[in-house]
Write a structure and sequence with these properties.
Its EC number is 4.2.1.162. The chain contains 21 helices and 14 strands. With 580 residues, the protein is of the alpha/beta class. Helix 4 links the parallel strand 1 and strand 2 (83-88). It is globular and about 80 Å long. The mean pLDDT is 96.
Length: 580
């Protein structure tokens, strides 16, 4: 790595100096309390104080190894002449937290921001990877604007079952449908239960976790190649130590996040997500992160860049074969980016190099079927499309490379479910008359209505259709879906039904037309009918009367603007605390 410095900032230039270095009573107290912690003066005085924000938890399998990785980060910080302090922060476990960790993304972002601002911190190492933890940590750190390095949790090892390589999430959905169709039984499910997720780390498909850690690397806030390193390898330990070394140098250079996460960096992160065939969730999170950085990024940027960005990563579920370990050994993100240099802003800085161009200079691809060449892409256009129409005036998204091609242009009658519980209870009711041509519509699952916009968007196909061999249908909702999911699922409809968006006005039997090529989603109604129905609509009662949920409901913005809290997303100065 080329970015280094021979300059050591004088102690009085460090932010932590105001806690430790003055002659007043408060500094005396801070030094005394640090002695209480067992540290000698020479261990910390005059050295950059590095906060290690660790999302480790006993109930987060994606992060269960981060307790050990924090020790490697500390090792690197000590070696570089810094003083590391580990801070436990909220863990957002995609697998266990209900109704969805998306409800708490902004809470972790607030915690990150306020911890970094209120303690004697000169720089930060952010440790996460499970879906919402990456954007939450970066949103908070961007708002504080200290030097920071992100340490991705890394993908778990590939799953195995009866000689088949399994992808977490993606194969769960596939085999659950096979169970419902009567193709496998309880014995097979028991084997799958033991084989799907067999090590620490996040999903090893190109789901939301891998997509967002890759986006973080593309932004320039990780050491090179970090996002795809398997979680349990010694290489991952070495990457954590390298990140500890790097953050001390960044503090001495005063290279804050605002100098890294520029408009060009966010454009490149979007391009990266598209070239990976990444998760639709990246749309919401990147928009939220960009706005924290004062960068205008919207749905139209994703759609514009998608039209000129090929999908080169042949990684499930957008690809048909490989998993993240294959991607890593094929060259990882540096290898992929080396194949699209004309689509990137190569002269911007990263935390490791003076320019992205320099960072990619030695990048290579070692397996052309995992990271495809430009003349043999997985898809000619980026894997996401942004839809507009009278059903989604503020936009919706679809991961069209994960759809059956026959459904990319489709008109069918709506079958409407008012909430997910109703859908679960009634999806197999024969009286609904659901056919393969029906358009399944779920509402009440958006940012406010969900609450938290749960990953309900891959609506289940009725059992009788699964038994007939149907594996995809057009499904429409104001929900999100897991990045490991697949199918013709239209997501993030904005505005959501809970605030009176057009989705609230759809009736069972209405015809809906999806046309991905035209980027259109249309409710086929006569002129004036939507307005008549809107006049009869009444808002649902508030879900929360107190607590964090009430704050969330009051402040949450819609999907097209990133689902941030309005009071956090707006620009404005927040002063550093007076340390006395």
């Amino acid at each position: 790595m080329s970015r280094s410095t021979s300059r050591t900032r004088p102690p009085e230039e460090l932010r932590s100096h105001q806690w430790y270095g003055t002659d007043g009573l408060r500094s005396f107290s801070h030094r005394a309390r640090t002695r209480q912690l067992g540290y000698l003066p020479e261990e910390h005085l005059g050295k950059p104080v590095i906060a290690i924000l660790n999302t480790w938890s006993d109930i987060n399998p994606c992060h269960v190894h981060l307790r050990e990785r924090a020790q490697a980060v500390k090792r690197g910080v000590w070696q570089a002449g810094g003083f590391p302090l580990e801070f436990p922060v909220s863990t957002l476990s995609e697998t266990f937290q209900k109704p969805t960790p998306m409800l708490y993304r902004n809470l972790l972002a607030m915690e990150t921001e306020e911890l970094l601002r209120s303690y004697p911190v000169d720089g930060a190492v952010l440790m996460g990877g499970c879906d919402k933890s990456t954007p939450a940590l970066l949103m908070g750190a961007i708002s504080v604007d200290l030097p920071a390095v992100f340490v991705p949790a890394g993908p778990m090892l590939p799953g195995h079952w009866r000689g088949e390589v399994l992808g977490s999430g993606t194969d769960m959905w596939k085999y659950w449908d096979d169970k419902r169709a009567g193709l496998i039984g309880d014995c097979e499910l028991a084997g799958l239960e033991n084989g799907l997720a067999r090590s620490p780390g996040h999903c090893m498909t190109m789901g939301t976790a891998s997509t967002l850690t890759a986006a973080a690397e593309a932004l320039g806030v990780t050491v090179p190649g970090a996002s795809s390193i398997p979680a349990v390898t010694s290489e991952h330990d070495r990457m954590a130590a390298a990140s500890g070394l790097r953050i001390v140098e960044l503090v001495h250079q005063d290279l804050t996040l605002s100098k890294i996460v520029t408009s060009d960096a966010f454009q490149d992160a979007v391009t990266t997500v598209l070239a990976l065939g990444g998760s639709t969730n990246a749309v919401i999170h990147l928009i939220a992160m960009a706005r924290r950085a004062g960068v205008e990024l919207g749905l139209d940027d994703f759609d514009r860049l998608a039209r000129s960005t090929p999908v080169l990563a042949n990684v499930r579920p957008g690809g048909d074969t490989y998993l993240m370990e294959d991607f890593h050994f094929a060259g990882g993100l540096p290898g992929l980016l080396s194949r699209i240099p004309d689509l990137l802003h190569l002269d911007r800085p990263t935390v490791s190099h003076d320019t992205l161009r320099e960072q990619l200079a030695a990048a290579e691809v070692h397996h052309d079927d995992v990271i495809r060449p430009r003349d043999r892409p997985v898809a000619a256009e980026g894997g996401l499309a942004v839809l507009r129409g009278n059903l989604c005036p503020d936009g919706a998204v679809i991961k069209h490379i994960a759809c059956e091609p026959r459904l990319l242009k489709h008109t069918g009658p709506a079958v409407v479910f008012d909430d997910y519980r109703q859908l679960q209870r009634t999806i197999n009711d024969p009286s609904l008359g659901i056919t393969a041509d029906s358009v399944l519509v779920l509402r009440g699952a958006g940012p406010k209505g969900g609450p938290g916009m749960p990953e309900y968007g891959m609506l289940p196909i009725p059992d009788h259709l699964l038994k007939e061999g149907v594996r995809d249908m057009v499904r429409i909702s104001d929900a999100r879906m897991s990045g490991t999911s697949y199918g013709a699922c239209v997501l993030h409809i904005a505005p959501e039904s809970h605030v009176g968006g057009p989705l609230a006005l759809v009736h069972t039997g209405d015809l809906i037309t999806l046309d991905v090529e035209a980027r259109s989603l249309q409710l086929e109604l006569p002129d004036g009918e939507l307005e008549r129905r809107r006049a009869q609509w009444a808002p649902p009662p508030a879900r929360f009367e107190r607590g964090y949920g009430a704050l969330y409901a009051d402040q949450i913005t819609q999907a097209d603007t990133g689902c941030d809290f309005a009071f956090l997303a707006r620009p404005g100065r927040v002063p550093d605390p007076y340390a006395g």
